[in-house]
Amino acid sequence: MSAVYRESGLGSQPNLAQAHLPSCSSDLVRPWSLYTSGQRWTYLALLFVMSTSNYFDRNVLSVLLEPIKREFRVSDTMLGLLSGLCFSVFYVLAGIPVARWADRGNRRTIVTLALATWSATTMFCGLAQRFWQLALARVGVGIGESGAIAPAQSLIADYFPPEQRAVALGAFDAAGTAGYLLGVAIGGFVAANYGWRNVFLLAGAPGLLVALVVRFCLPEPRMRVALASRTAGREGVAEALSILWRKHSYLYAVASSIVYWFFAYGVLIFIPSFLVRVLGVPLARASLLYGSVAAVASVVGAVGGGWLADQLGRRDVRWLAWFPALTYTLATPAFGFAFALNSFSSFLILAFVGMLLLTAGSPPVFAATHAICGSRRRATAIAILFFSATLAGGGLGPLATGALSDTLRRVYGNTGLGYALCAATALLPVSAILLHAMARRMPSDIEQ
Predict the structure, then answer these.
(1) Helix 378-389, helix 237-246: angle, nearest 10
(2) In the chain, where are the structural domains located?
(3) Is the CB of residue 1 less than 8 Å from the CB of residue 12?
(4) pTM value?
């Protein structure tokens, strides 16, 4: 029993190592015991590459919005629709069935098929000659990428023991920012010199090769430990959803993630446009400098935040929710001033601080979800959290930001986009409040 739990009057509560134990007592073999430390990190590195491809293909669109706007002569609202709902709706619709498959079946196969699908459809984006064709190709990217994050996190939870999961998830989560920032840096350079269609072709092609590597090099623990038949096979979809619905801390995690991703998707997708349109920075220079600064901040933040959350979680598992609540709160003024000061140098400094804090808080949220969801519904729980956040945040965030920008532009001109991004920062404290509520309910929801 941790001293923190004793002092808080909560009685005997599970610590971080206990929080992730399978809920079925017959599961005597822990899957992470099958692998050495070197093997675990090798498999994580492969999943990192897969996830980097995922986020590269998903987010490279952000740096291409301006040339797409000029060619197809569409509004910011239509750009928000293209980068939001066209992707997110089908991403979510396909995601839940895929997650249930991941809780029972071969996750390596799922990841391989998903990777090949989104890579091919990303290349189709580069062949689009009409705006509706581009939107349809983005639907295909959304369907393919629905099979990435939840199965991959489920595999990581089997590769790593509980007390190392936050740092492992932090390293994996850094792929999201790495993919986004590589898309900004490489995509901006290629778009400026060779056109936006070639960016999509370049983004999708490597994923087809990575899919082959994943298929032949990534192990599926269930092929050595029959977890699927002893755990997930005993629980149907309705029962899994019912159990998750009764876990109040899980519901707070979903709500917090929706608000967080509404900010993240709605703001990050328009940062290159903000730098070009409001601050007057050339696209290639904006992509290179912002991409480089934010890449360092994101990698340090995700890995460092995951490591620190693991240390704090050993004392009290509620730190997995308290820690991101703190970082989101501190990130709020950093982003607010970044969009308000109208200085590129100030923006780079404040964006570094904001991205560092933002990415430090994300991995512990997923680790906390693994602590409370139970092993039989791990992929389903992550999928619901991630896909709900993607549908509401990824689908509506860019659309709302684009619509607000169009509205403010009528009064303030190009500066209206900066005001819209600045207003969006008010969402981060709301996400922090929900995480505090999650922490209060975690001890009663943890499955041992």
Answers:
(1) 70
(2) 33-214+236-442
(3) yes
(4) 0.71
Residue 224 token pair: 């050595």
Distances, alpha carbon 81 to alpha carbons 61, 151, 219, 256, 283, in Å: 12, 27, 38, 23, 22
Burial of 231 (0-12, 13-18, 19+ CB in 10 A): buried
Apex 241 CA angle, 238 and 246, nearest 5: 125
How many angstroms from the chain centroid is the CA of residue 270?
17
- Cα gap 16→252, rounded to integer Å: 19
Cβ-Cβ contacts under 8 Å for 114 (sequence gap 6 or more): 98, 144, 145, 146, 147, 148, 151
CA 296 to chain centre: 17
- How many whole angstroms separate alpha carbon 331 and alpha carbon 238? 38
**305 touches 343 (CB < 8 A):** no
3-state secondary structure of 342: coil
Decide: 278 and 146 in contact? Cβ < 8 Å.
Answer: no
Res 231 pLDDT > 60: no
At residue 119, the pLDDT reads: 94
Main-chain phi, psi angles of 281, to 5 degrees = -90, 135
Q: Give dist(CA 163, CA 39) in Å, integer.
A: 17
DSSP 147: T
3-state secondary structure of 413: coil
pLDDT at 11 over 60: no
Whether 359 has a pLDDT exceeding 50, the answer reads: yes
N-terminal to C-terminal alpha carbon distance within the chain? 14
161-182 core/surface letters (b: 16 or more CB in 10 A; e: else) = ebbbbbbbbbbbbbbbbbbbbb
What is the sign, positive or negative, of the torsion defined by CA atoms of 172, 368, 329, 9? negative
Q: For residue 161, name the pLDDT band (cuts at 50, 70, 90).
A: confident
As given in the structure block, the two tokens for residue 318 are: 């509620």
CATH number listed for the domain at residues 33-214+236-442: 1.20.1250.20
Measure the CA–CA gap between 83 and 63, rounded to whole angstroms: 11
